[in-house]
Amino acid sequence: MPSLIRRTGPFAWRNPRLYVLFTLFYNARAYYPVLAVLFTDLGLTLDQYVMLNAAWAASIFLLEVPSGALADTIGRKRLLVFSASLMVVEMGVLLLAPKDGGWLLFALCLLNRILSGASEAAASGADEAIAYDSLPEEGRQAAWDTVLATTMRWRSVGLLIAMTLGGLLYDPSWWNNLVGETFHVSLEIAHRLPVALVFLQGIACLLIALRFEETRPQHADPRGKCASAFRLTLRTAAYAFTTRHIAIVLLGAVLIDSVARNFATLVSQYYRLIQIPGWAFGLIGSAIAIGNWFVPTIAARVNRRVSTNASLLIGGCVASLGLFALVPAWPWLGLIPAMLLMTLLGFIGFTVSRFLHSVATSDQRATLLSVKGLVFNLGYGAASLAFSLLLAGLDTGDHTAFQRALLWQAILFTAALAPFATTVHLTTRPKP
Questions:
Q1: Cα(263)–Cα(340) distance, rounded to whole angstroms?
Q2: 16 in Cβ contact with 131 (< 8 Å)
Q3: Which of 68, 130, 333, 429 has the largest CB neighbor count within 10 A?
Q4: Do 253 and 378 contact (CB within 8 A), yes or no?
Q5: CA 322 → CA 256, 259, 331, distances in Å?
Q6: Sequence-ordered list of residues with C-beta below 8 angstroms from that of 324, at least 6 positions apart, any chain
């Protein structure tokens, strides 16, 4: 059996090994289980936080495809080094953001979200492309399935550790109950510890990115680089949106991903709604990470048995059920639909990545993956903005706006899923 540790199978090549490690440190961020409350505890309102996420998505929207095209022209390694450098800076900005700092706090948090979006855009597509093109052409699809499944499992382990640490570091009450007053950790310090840990992960990502081996030839003329990137951007975007089977997959996937990811950024606020103590946030995230270990196997089996569109429709039905099950906000029992929606993100990611690699050519691979990232983040930004407007419109001062916004989100998502289901039915039924 191929092994990352033993460097066998597709991991005999350096780039696939580094890809797993890069995505591990880049994505397993200790502040994820407390993301919403991290910003609101700093002094932002919930609707301000959701608006910041829309700004994060907007920065990715503006940079996603150009960065992918640049990765295919000036080199994937350079984009990954740039992405890791931005990760270090964005975490440094958040470490310096003053609690209850008014407009200064909001400005620094906005800068953090913009830098984070730029970093995501630079890494998106380039990381997968530099690993995929390092694999031998013979048996490349099967080898990539192995790399992708291994990456998701290692990421699950990383999330297991990061989520547990994040929740425990953010809420020091358990520690303060165990030790004397001399060794107590204040809330102000504890709330910065998950961010400090991710800052160190950013440095690790930078060191890993510097060790990648470039897979694309370089242009000598800088003007040629920019011109090639621009032409490749236009060609690939036109190809994606005028090729029917690609467009259907992208639109169906973004519909599901956008609402699931919007909820993922608000999940800590939902945990407070269903009366979960803060120290348990990370442990719940760890349980989700354990569940994600099995997602690649499930996703691979589903995608081998049915079409990509049918796989997405299954995911959409599960998402609709999960969104409606969130609304009653049952204490503790509300964890079941919340965890279901979180694991669904991995299923959708596996399905779309597998499909796009099967239809992309080497010279446009990173760009096409970036088109996917652009569409996903545009959808996420729209979902965040819509949810923010829902919160503002439903806020009557009785603290029920969040729960009512969850209900409207479920209704609107299900209504939007219906046309996709109809399209899948019409495109997959046998011709007479």
A1: 11
A2: yes
A3: 68
A4: no
A5: 11, 11, 16
A6: 410, 414
Indicate the residue type of 33: P
Contact (CB, 8 A) for 421 and 320:
no
| CA separation, residue 157 to residues 288, 289, 290, 425 (Å) | 10, 7, 7, 37
Statement: residue 222 has pLDDT above 50:
no
Spatial separation of the C-alpha atoms in residues 330 and 346, rounded to whole Å = 25
Q: Which of 55, 21, 69, 152 is nearest to 369 (CA)?
A: 69
Please tell me the distance from the alpha carbon of residue 164 to that of residue 205, in angstroms, as a whole number.
21
- As to burial, measured by CB atoms within 10 angstroms (0-12 exposed, 13-18 middle, 19+ buried), residue 316 is buried
How far, in Å, CA of 373 to CA of 272, rounded?
31
Q: Using the predicted structure, report yes or no on whether residue 15 has a pLDDT greater than 70.
A: yes
Give tens-digit pLDDT for 72-85: 677 888 889 999 99
The string of DSSP codes covering 79-96 is: HHHHHHHHHHHHHHHHHH
Q: Residue 430 has what pLDDT?
A: 47
CB atoms under 10 Å from CB of 220, counted, come to: 6
- Which phi and psi (to 5°) does residue 360 adopt? -90, 150
Which residues have CB under 8 Å from 389's CB, separation 6+? Answer: none
Spatial distance between the Cα atoms of 195 and 162, rounded to a whole number of angstroms = 11
Q: How far apart are the first and last CA of the chain?
A: 45
Hunting for tokens 């809420």 — which residue is that?
171
Using CA atoms, how far apart are residues 263 and 270, in angstroms rounded to an integer?
9
Query: Tell me, what's the pLDDT at 366?
Result: 67
Task: Tell me the CB-side half-sphere exposure of residue 351, using CA atoms within 13 A.
Answer: 32
Handedness of CA 38, 42, 48, 52 (dihedral sign): negative
Which residue matches tokens 């005028």? 242
What is the homologous superfamily of the domain 11-428 according to CATH? Answer: MFS general substrate transporter like domains (1.20.1250.20)
Distance CA 81, CA 229 (A): 18
